[in-house]
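QA checklist item 7 of 12: single-chain prediction sanity check.
[x] sequence parsed
[x] length recorded as 223
[x] structure emitted
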Amino acid sequence: MKYVLVVGGGKVGSYLVSLLLADGYTVRVVEGNKEDISRLHKELPKGILVEGDSTDPLVLESAGIRNADVVAAVSRGDATNLVITSLARFEFNVPRTIARVNTPKNAWLFTQEMGVDVALNQAELMAHLIAEEMTLGDMMTLLKLRRGQYSIVEYQVGPSTPAAGKQVRDLDLPHDCVLTAVLRGGEMHVPRGETVIQPGDTVLALVHSSQLDRLASLLIGVS
């Protein structure tokens, strides 16, 4: 089972730890704030919390960073998160690093050159999700991938859309798009060339962000 080191025990960090523990991961969390430490002692099982300065290499080493498969830097400070990911990658050779971006204007700093594999910019992700929900009708974004370049989306097929009644092989699907599942009557169907898309179907797709509008036009009639 993978070992995840979470650095930052605020609300985001503690919730992340609870999710990881529930999924069976080996987890430890590093926190230096006295108020957060007091709360974490009450919320977390014994042996999970490591107290100390999260940017101190000795503290990180005592938390077992050399054995970590993933380091998630989710503190409230962008500078702190960058220091942690840089140490994780270049000092301790951690295979995977994830960093929380608290202030959107700092997002440009969170690059692989700074040791960040994945940067989670909460404000930007939320803004994009709201914008998509406002413009793309019966579409829901389920997951963002590759820093938002690709999305796994869910479409409810309309009765008079271009896709309704057509086989998958006859759909003019956009580039950088693949249909992954069709949900119909409580059952999942793997889309094949002969699969007919019916009104009311729920279609799941993996699509590049630049092709969202075109796919929405095909499946739900949004232009």
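[x] summary fact logged: The chain has two domains: 3-120, 136-220.
[ ] second reviewer sign-off
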